[in-house]
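INTERNAL AUDIT FORM
Audit reference: QA-55
Scope: verify that the stored structure record matches its stored sequence.
Auditor: D.O.
Record contents follow.
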Amino acid sequence: MRNKWKLSISLAVLIAVSFCLTVIAEQDKAKNTQPGEIYRGWKLAVQAWTFHNSTFYEAVDNAKTLGLKYIEAFGSQSLSKEEPQTKTDYQMKAETKEKIKSKPAQAGIKLINYGVVTPAENSEAEWRKLFDFAKDMGIETIVSEPPEEAFDMLDKLCQEYKINLAIHNHPKPSHYWNPDTVLKVCQGRSKYIGACADTGHWMRCGINPIDALKLLSGRIINVHLKDLNKFNKKKAFDVPFGEGKAEIRDILAELSLQDYKGYLVVEHENKKELDNPSPSILKGIVYVKGITDYRDYEEILGRSDGRYSMHGWNHYGPGYFELDERTGVLKSQGGMGLLWYSVRKFKDFVLELDFKCFQKETNSGVFLRIPAVPASNDYINHSFEIQISEAGEGIHRTGAVYDAEAPKAAASRSIGEWNHFKITFQGSRIQVELNGQAVLDWNAEPRGKVKDFAPEGYIGLQNHDSIAPVFFKNICIKELK
């Protein structure tokens, strides 16, 4: 009986442990598939290798047709149908350089990067030829797979020329197929040395791109974005973004969390589509744009090197806001004061942000078009405030234009949960969406505390009192032309 009892206990423990491990695994999976909430408008480019069955001129034309503004060149492509023997090699003649410069310029496209290229002779003299070429062409990043022993010299050249070198990861047996190797050669180097993250080649090697991106956080200079039909299969082929196994949405979320500001370079490699990969590329571009929140927005509570900063923000009056530099969350302290974005005034715009109330009595607001630098409390008489107050009613409730126009509906979430404002101010029309629900559409006029309002002005956040703080994050604005 005692042995049966022990066996029952053991089974119960095993079941409990198994359950816990399952929960942990699911949590880890969730972390991997949902690494972030905020996205940005990406700078989409194309690697000319995508059109390597065509000429460089044709690759530029194709990029223009796809609506892309940037191109990355490689070194063995024919220049044009008229000059098939002239190649895009970095040792090209001066007249060829001028042709390669002028063709993208005429199409409204910028030549940004060059590679994958590694000089056959690993000498400073030979590498200088490549860097001289890059400087002359206005290239920002050289994509390469150099020998490890070259990096002391390469880092010196990168700093001298102010040109990046991004280490590419071709699949096995390439030396850099494993992101651990890329990280090792980056350590101790300047900011100009980093990774060219090829998501497709990682997938071919059985490496989760999101894990690799996290490992290389802070060192990602360039991205070759790919989606493959299979994972951990060397012969997997490219498919439109969102149709494969790459979890493109989560890759972009992770890059956004890292404050990646480089290019997303489309490099589509499907042998069945060599003659016309454009339809698949266009389908992928539409997908990326479709999952991109805050496209064409400016994140005015911005980040640098992965840390949030209040650079450009000033405070007027009592109290203050404190910032968690890791999460980008602002928390009000004391009051009544105003944190305002002083970099420039805005005329017509869409402002989006998240806010959270500490308790029902939390009182705050978002000020629109503050006409001048706040030097007294008089700004409240010349700018509209979108109210945050769950204890208020009518013209003093969350979503109202304070003291002027009440919201049509109550759409706030529970106290302690994050809410989302989308505020549009165009001409004299103010529209407010709260958590996706339209709660206000008003043709503004002087009313209540507001005597008049300006055609343009600053954005401000109110800290009201020391009893119930308010929290803000993800503050983004899009100017309307």
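Auditor finding: record pair retrieved intact. The domain at 303-479 is CATH 2.60.120.560 (Jelly Rolls).
Action required: none
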